[in-house]
TrEMBL record:
GO terms for biological process: carbohydrate catabolic process; cell wall macromolecule catabolic process; peptidoglycan catabolic process. Residues 1-18 form the signal peptide. Gene3D superfamilies: Glycosidases. It holds the Pfam family Glyco_hydro_25. It comes from the Eukaryota. One of its GO terms (molecular function) is lysozyme activity. InterPro entries: GH, Glyco_hydro_25, Glyco_hydro_fam25_subgr. It comes from Noctiluca scintillans (Sea sparkle). Keywords: Glycosidase, Hydrolase, Signal. Belongs to the glycosyl hydrolase 25 family. This is Lysozyme.
Length: 235
């Protein structure tokens, strides 16, 4: 995600990963990871055994691109018993409804949404494609509305504090839980989510997890406050 952002969640992260991110690891949060084809072939059973409780995988980008590892990751996460999520990398320069259709169709073709352990679908928003804030916001609204009409549930928005405030400037959270990208000791929250806070927090892009070669993004699920149970965000 963000050339500085991405997505999956883990529990039981080694101490070295926490030090890399300069983040304390409160026991109340669930931890996870987010992945794409950049992580190559993943041993999801090893990921699960290492303490990861949920993971997000890139599905699509733009109007036609599908991550070549999505089908494998989608089914591997499910087989390993992880709570799983899928994300779409937004390209606001192309039609929002076409992108939402491509996203949902790709998830359905990979095996679809399973009740109880599949998270609401994620919009990864980190580029404007050269559009102004009003046009980007209109695009986001159209994409989110289409995803909700196709799945019956609102999506989750992944973004950064400065990107949302400077490049989107939306005053409504569109009923979408926030997945914030912030590689700091405490994330700043865009104003639409000021009253509820983040549901997910991507706090590092340089973690290491058993079953994955190389670096991987690390995430938290709040598991408290406005979001006391991850299964409340599942279909």
């Amino acid at each position: 995600m963000f050339s500085r952002l991405l997505l999956v969640l883990i529990i039981g992260t080694p101490v070295t990963e926490a030090l890399e991110a300069n983040v304390s690891l409160p026991e109340t949060h669930l931890r996870g990871i987010d992945v794409s084809h950049y992580q190559g072939t993943i041993n999801w059973n090893s990921v699960k055994s290492s303490g990861v409780s949920f993971a997000m995988a890139k599905a699509t980008e733009g109007t036609s691109y599908t991550d070549p590892m999505f089908n494998t990751n989608w089914n591997g996460m499910h087989s390993a018993g992880l709570v799983r999520g899928a994300y779409h990398f937004a390209r606001p320069g192309s039609d929002a409804v076409t992108q939402a259709d491509h996203f949902v169709n790709t998830v359905n073709n990979a095996g679809g949404i399973t009740s109880g352990n599949t998270l609401q679908l994620v919009l990864d928003l980190e580029t404007t494609d050269g559009l102004g804030s009003a046009a980007v916001l209109s695009w986001v609204e159209a994409f989110m509305a289409r995803v909700k009409s196709l799945t019956g549930r609102p999506g989750i928005i992944y973004t950064g504090y400065y990107f949302w405030n400077d490049d989107v400037r939306g005053s409504s959270c569109l009923d979408a839980p926030l997945w914030i990208a912030a590689y700091s000791s405490s994330p700043s929250i865009p104003s639409p989510w000021g009253g509820v806070g983040w549901a997910f927090w991507q706090y590092s892009d340089s973690g290491s997890v058993s079953g994955i070669s190389g670096a991987v993004d690390l995430d938290y699920f709040q598991n408290g406050g406005s979001y006391p149970d991850i299964y409340n965000l599942c279909f």
